[in-house]
Amino acid sequence: MEETISLQDLFKTLKKRAVLILLTMLLAVTVAGVVSFIFLTPIYQASTQILVNQQKVEQNQFNTQDIQANLQLINTYNVIIKSPAILSKVIENLDLDTTPAALNTKITVNSAQNSQVVNVSVQDPEPYMAVDIANTTAEVFQEEIQKLMNVDNVNILSPAVLSENPSPVKPDPYLNMAIAAVVGLMLGVGIAFLLEYLDTTVKTEQDIEEILDLPILGLVSPITDGDMPNAREALQRRRKKG
């Protein structure tokens, strides 16, 4: 016999296992909250902006080759900023107990399309250290680029500033808890349907019909202890009539 599941059966299963589903979701949210607030280390971010000036040319307008050359120059600067030549100087100036490779993982360099502004972002567990590394990186790059490429077209547009009450950029406890709620809900629903699938006990007359594939001719109602005397009297009357 082919088994079919209706929407009504699905809703019955969800209603029957509602407590389990809610407990699973609450457990997931609680675990995510505890891990995010207590065990994960807050990471702070500081950013500084560097302005790369375009080289002076005689004509008033830039042609396509000039624009392409400026973009390539900015891309080159993005690589140089994170190079050991710059980061080693940053470590030396700040007396950091780290390596250029490790410091490289904390720094992100990017620039908007067709923009002369380069953004240098630093993430660190200490907010003041993130600010110091960002500003020192920009200053060292401004000094060293003159020696490396014989150019003086870099200016610090906006240094990083330490705010009074810095907020960590990660982890985001509330986002983690929201994700955990969705995952917990899905897990709870999955467990509910799994338990329902594994439950092979017979509970209703519909279960008997599905298992035996036979129609139900009658039902035996449960009899409590208080109904026993009345049941005996009814049985005796039937025997006398018979």
UniProtKB/TrEMBL annotation:
Transmembrane domains' residue ranges: 20-44, 174-195
A Pfam family matched in the record: Wzz
Keyword RNA-binding recorded: no
Classification via InterPro entries: Bact_polysacc_biosynth/exp, GNVR, LPS_length_determ_N
Membrane topology of this protein: Multi-pass membrane protein
Keywords carried by this UniProt record: Cell membrane, Membrane, Transmembrane, Transmembrane helix
Single GO cellular component term: plasma membrane
Presence of keyword RNA-binding: no
Domain Tyrosine-protein kinase G-rich: 142-194
Coiled-coil region: none
Annotated Polysaccharide chain length determinant N-terminal domain residues: 3-94
Chief subcellular location: membrane
Subcellular location: Cell membrane
Any one GO MF annotation of this record: protein tyrosine kinase activity
Similarity-based family: Belongs to the CpsC/CapA family.
The protein's name in its UniProt record: Capsular polysaccharide biosynthesis protein
Organism in which the protein naturally occurs: Sporosarcina luteola
Organism placement in taxonomy: Bacteria, Bacillati, Bacillota, Bacilli, Bacillales
